[in-house]
Amino acid sequence: MDILNGYGASIEYDGVVVRLIAGKVQAKIWKTDAVAFPVEDIITLGYRRANPFVNGQLKFTTIRPADAYAALGRGMFDFVPDNGLVIHWRRKDQAAFGALHEELASKVDPADEERKRTLSIQVRAEYAAAREAAIKQAGAQRPDDSGPAR
Predict the structure, then answer these.
(1) In the prediction, which pLDDT does 22 show?
(2) Which of 23, 33, 116, 127 has the most CB atoms within 10 Å of its CB?
(3) C-alpha to C-alpha distance for 9 and 23, rounded to whole angstroms
């Protein structure tokens, strides 16, 4: 599929992987140029049609934290806001994004949501522990307040 240009970000879907490509402002929010994840990792797919008053919205809830999917070339544990996997579009692009939503929704099995949410809790806990260990190993621990009292 071609790249669909949203408002501030673009989306590309090849049938297996969803790739969100950030614009200038979105890149600052995500702290990366792109986030890619397999369609099988989607737990829920939020969708809001564009209308004359608000832009359309496609929101992804995924098994792994958003920063785990960030493009290569960054530190593994650089932070991407977990609620930031959202792409907006204008009303004139409604048909293209509506078709993409239908295609993605056909690949996301609602009956599998509970299993994916359970897996997500486990994966996110492991990821948080690995992130904490990496931070400690890098020496980026919080200052120790156990010094002498004044």
Answers:
(1) 82
(2) 116
(3) 5
Which ranges constitute the DSSP H helices of the chain? 24-30, 94-107, 113-137
Q: Are strands 4-5 and 9-13 parallel, antiparallel or unpaired?
A: antiparallel
Task: Say if residues 43 and 117 touch (Cβ distance below 8 Å).
Answer: yes
Residue 133 CA: distances (Å) to CA of 79, 136, 138, 143: 15, 5, 9, 16
- Report the first-to-last Cα separation within the chain, whole angstroms: 65
Q: pLDDT per residue over 93-143, tens digit each?
A: 999 999 999 999 998 887 888 888 788 788 778 877 877 887 787 775 455
Based on its alpha-carbon atoms, the radius of gyration of the chain, rounded to whole angstroms, reads: 18
What would the CATH number be for the domain defined by 4-137? 2.30.29
Q: Residue 140: CB partners within 8 Å, gap ≥ 6?
A: none
Strand order in the sheet with 34-38: 4-5, 9-13, 17-22, 34-38
CB 36 within 8 A of CB 13: no
- Quote the pTM value: 0.68
